[in-house]
Amino acid sequence: MNRRKFLGAIGAAGLTITGAGKVLAGEKPVMGAAVKDIEGLPDSYAVLFDSNICIGCRQCEMGCNQENQLPEPDVDFHDPRIFEQIRRTDWKTYTLINQYDDEAPGLGWLYRKTQCMHCLEPACAHSCFVKAFHKRRDGAVVYDRKVCVGCRYCMMACPFNIPAYEYHIALDPLVTKCTFCEHRLLEGREPACVEICPVRAMEFGTRTEMLNLARRRILDNPDMYVDHIYGEHEMGGTNWLYLSPVPFPEIGMRMDLGTDPAGNYTSGALGGVPIITAFWPVLLVGAYAIARRKDKVAKEERDQYVSRMIAQAGPEVGRKLAERLSKTQELDQAAIEEEVRKALAEAAAKTESEEAH
Amino acid sequence: MTNQHNEHPWEVKSPWITPFNVVAALIVLMGIYLTYLRFTGGLAAVTNLDDNYPWGIWISFDLLCGVALAAGGYTTATACYVFGIKKYHAAVRPAILTAFLGYALVVFALHYDVGQPWRLAYPIFVQQGTTSVLFEVGLCVFLYVTVLFLEFLPAPLERLGIKRVRNIMVKLTLVLTVFGVILSTMHQSSLGALYLILPSKMHPLWYSTHLPIYFFVSSMFAGLSMVIFESTLSHRWYHNRMDKSHLEGTPHVTFGFAKAAAWIMAGYFFIKFFGVVLNNNWAYLNTFYGMIFSIEMLGFVALPAFLYIKGVKTRNIKLIRWTAVLAVFGIVFNRFNVSLVAYNYHLPSEMKYFPALAEIGVTIFVVTIGLIVFKFIATRTPIFYELPDYKGSH
Description:
The structure holds 2 protein chains of 2 kinds.
Chain A: H1 3-18, E1 45-50, H2 59-67, E2 96-101, E3 109-114, H3 123-127, E4 133-135, E5 141-143, H4 153-157, E6 164-165, E7 175-176, H5 182-186, H6 192-196, E8 202-206, H7 207-220, E9 240-243, H8 262-313, H9 315-327, H10 333-356
Parallel strand pairs in A: 1-9
Antiparallel strand pairs in A: 1-8, 2-3, 4-5, 6-7
Chain B: H1 19-41, H2 43-46, H3 57-69, H4 72-82, H5 89-113, H6 122-125, H7 133-152, H8 154-160, H9 163-171, H10 173-193, H11 211-237, H12 244-278, H13 282-285, H14 288-313, H15 317-342, H16 357-378
Helix pairs in contact in B: 1-16, 3-5, 3-15, 3-16, 4-5, 4-10, 4-11, 5-7, 5-16, 7-10, 8-9, 10-11, 11-12, 11-15, 12-14, 12-15, 14-15
């Protein structure tokens, strides 16, 4: 084997694969799989949803449907029976309202809006193997329909179960999700759902403004809110923020997601790639060399033994022994000893018969 | 099984109408019909996938199990060429062929699963999502299919008598083997790493930061067991196509691989056990999920490890062959547990996924294609025998 060629091949492989460690967010790509600290895009757009204010009128659903030219919904936007079940986003629905029992059942209802949370470090973008998702500086997590392969790993990865798929479409199905009305953000306008809300259950501004507003509301009315801004830190922080009068799990929001951005969970594994690429050849070629050397030493010892036998027992016996040994593929000691034993016995027999003559 | 061998295995002819061929033809017809449904009605026409379950059995079986069970390629090649254990030589070609077809079928099956299969190469050639574990899987699988193809090439080249190219390929054996192990290490483990990004959806008994290591280590005994299993079937159907050295080498392979598999399984059992200890998952063991986890660990890891050892000690080749079947089932059970049982464990049962018949049909179709192509190649190229010109030269 040509060593230079081999090293070249391994080096090339290493370079190709170490590229896998690059991280997506931030302007300066970080080499290796380390995840950069997030400043949180303080000037990006954000929305604060207040579950204390929402009345469950579903105008936001209608506004979203019209703005994004989505198909007719299965159940009319004014039909309250929709609340009989807890829904999630699907290909016709980028946003929706679910109804939850307030503390004393029957006394009141709480409503909570669902849509893409527009994470600062989105799991969908981290998991996409063709970079179809991308976090914009203005806060929106946007989707490139022109490259999406349809592997649906984003749907697996999303901790909020937001992306949906057009399973019914034969040839060019796409992943669907709330776009933060990306076209409106470019003009500095608030998303359609925020604009249409008759009770201002949602406020729109920069992320810093919205966090400050949320804190103020909690401080001003400590009895009305649990002391937590959902989305401030969840999964590394999101651009949609929530306030609630009851613990968040009661309005269907998980509190056990942790504050690590999604990329942190895979950076360790991806970081192993360059190590394996660089070190496995050392290990394997080393093992190969040891195996080869073992064989070589065994052969040398055997040859030495044969020459010693020749010296001791005369050329004829030695030649036969060498011949027999060269036929055996097994190189271990037991086999050699067996061969030697046979050769010696033969030689002895021969001497005996010669003596008899 | 007799000890007789055929002196001219390359001259064996087989008839066209056989039970295998008839059944295979029917399955292929079904597969073509399902393919038509899939590409006219979309995934919804043939699968039970939904927004909560974007990955079904085409990922669990065709991808995760397919890749794990094709691990015999790198394990056998490493044992023979890197560690220099020449008595495993007889197993190399069948294992490489099985692995090559296994990976080719994984890629084939993915064409059904992804929404727009004609874009399957986009992540490599158009836009690289380098932060994605799936990108690593895709790149490695793409490269490894190529490596396996090159490793497999000498067999058809010998058959066709193209000596010069064949000799070059044989000289590359060690480079290709080492490259194959690097790629296998990475993508076998990355298949486990795919699930790292969704801790909130995975049952704690199966979720661990060590998932990549679990997948890699289990792929080793999956591959070894699959080589034993494949050789059992081959000896049943292709006995008259095997030459003396292949037949003589097989017991070495069976006993040696059984011993190695048992050893690795024991290690795997302990790293999984430490996983329970380190994550303090004891409380979960006494639940429904704990029961499934215990069945997996005791029935499909500890038991086959024990039976392998017993088979080696008592020179019981039959026991080892059945144990290989058990071990292969165990790997399938584990991959299904990770990707379907542990995944979305918190969803109410009426929202859980169960594969559609058509979905299972496509998987059967894919496996059948594999068997047909294996048969086609194994009956036409020197896989189970050496041609006289090339005896002992690779």
